[in-house]
Fold each of these.
Amino acid sequence: MTKSFNVPRGTSDILPDAIPLWEALESNARKICKSYGYREIRTPVYEDINLFKRSLGQTSDVVNKQLLELASSKEDEGLALRPEGTAAVVRSYLENSFDGRESLSKFFYLGPMFRGERPQKGRLRQFHQIGVEAIGPNSTSPFLDAEMMALAMHLLKELGVKGAQLKINTLGSKEDKANISAWLREEFTKHKSDLCEDCQARFERNVFRVLDCKKEQCKKLVKELIFKGGTVSLPLSNDSAQYFSKVLHCLESIGVNFVISHDLVRGLDYYTHTVFEITAEGLGSQDAVGAGGRYNGLVHELGGNEKIDYGAIGFALGMERILLASGQNEPVASGINVFVIAMKEEYQPQAFLLLQQLRKADISANMSFVSGSMKSQMGKANKANARFALILGEDEIKNQTVALKDMLASSQEVVAQANIVEAIKNRLK
Ligand code: HAM
């Protein structure tokens, strides 16, 4: 027997019945992002692998374990499918000299991302994100941090996500991060061997990750050594602490609810200052429906002008998780305006002509190219969820008319073929 093929592990087909859900998600997302002044950007699905390595950090799980490399030919060497959108947006921002044109660039994107993860509910190898990024010298304002989180929460609400909870923390400036890293290493040093294998490996380059490790042994140590059983925050400079409190104040001023979560550190290296994550109900263990934060240092890291003091902040929402959390998994019945029925094979040319006239007039229409009994043709019209059936029988062909059957009202009338477009348009109003 010939081998059949299956969709690759961790990916899925989005079948026609589910497309209306995705279309609604995408068009709502576009509308809301635009209403906050963000403009859509589309970057390639693959990039130079070093763009991801440099942006996300060599110690991040995404770079370490999950990059899907393209290596089918010499030309593809050094390319990888994008695991996220931020790095590519910054690359494009610099390559297209947005920094020379405007002091704040606001982008959003929708599209597939790829990570070589172990698949489980809500965790896929190809998934889709709605991402938003604001980059430029004028981006270091606590209002912008608040705008980002407000936009993320607004999107989730409009997209029907239930029980969304915003968790927020600050990692401080680049200097704070270095100081906190040194402090964490000192605190953990005597207990290094009690940490899980991953955390021991991350100890030197990204000790922050120990704070959000999900393994019991690490969680216990973090609680005892760092948070001393309570919720002590990480040591920060005055400037960073003040910036964070302004962000919180801005959020409160526009009524965005949040909880401060001192152990929230995020898995990607590029973050500084504000970091946030949004969880939702109904997602099981993969309960983050979105996440983001500031990444002020990344623009310089990717070659930005040393004389410009860039700032940047953004977030991404997982679209599959949005659909899961909003309970919108049931396919929505889509329909068509008209189903054209030729009662005999020889009437098909005339039916085909009318079919095309309808489509050109912006009336959605379909027909079966296999002739069959009236019963089977009506069955097809019903299955297509047609609003009208347009029937061509012997009399209609002779008189240049059609029988127009209203599938909702179950009524039928005769209409001249010459007037059919107008007649249907009037009835669809
Ligand atoms: P992230 O936390 O890696 O951040 O991903 C953001 C969201 O994408 C997650 O909260 C989740 O909803 C979804 N997601 C991630 N991985 C998977 C997966 N394997 N399967 C299904 N959904 C997934 C970023 O990607 C950053 N680029 C966000 C950002 C933008 N930070 C600043 N700007």
Amino acid sequence: MAIIIKSEREINLMKEAGKVMIDLFDELQKYTKPGMSTAELDKIAARFIRSNGAIPACKGYEGFPGNICISVNDTLIHGIPSKKIILKEGDIVSYDVVILKNGYNVDACRTFPVGEISDNAKKLIETAKSCFFNAVKIIKPGVHIGDISSIIEETAENAGYTLTEDYTGHGIGKDMHEDPYVPNVGKKGSGPKLQKGMTICIEPMINEGKVDLDVMEDGWTVKTRDHKLSVHYENTVVVTETGYQIITLKEGEEI
Ligand code: MF3
Ligand code: CO
């Protein structure tokens, strides 16, 4: 499949979905407290998205049962919201959300602390963000996808963390997943070149311990085999004439 370049009109529609995403994370952060179940948080997210004239696009995607993915501690990605998963003090919880509005998708993920968390959990969250921001800063037309991947890889490895090659970032637009793939591991100068009007999701997923992962019997939940912590951070990014714009990020949050 070819890479789909978006017009200014299409990018403006995606920014509308991006605004809903930004407000949703504020809403979810407020409810991220000990005692909340991930099923309750999923309901809050769905209600919020729908009340903003948008659709939680993960619902039913390849049969995914939740409205959003909610992944706690050793769950790296694709956690299914459940009444049985109750947040407790010291947990870390990631909300991975795809919002469809006016026919266009945006995709983003945040990992939040539940109350007070350990220093190593804090460092893992900060490193996932650094992976994203170190990589995004180089974006402009002509840069290779592999340039992004190699910076993510280097940032995680310098901090002593591991990165899976099994799951990647991706293009996004009318479809949740479009070309090109945006791996978190790769070589400078490899892969397609960025062009103005491309819209991509960059999503570092990092583990505190070993890289090995297992998919649970539910067919979705991806956990670290050693049950150490994992963190996911993601934004939807537009390639502009001179650089980039992050359309799922609150102003002032760039590091
Ligand atoms: N947000 C995830 C991604 O980056 C997709 C979630 S899978 C779904 O691709 F089934 F929940 F949609
Ligand atoms: Co994604």
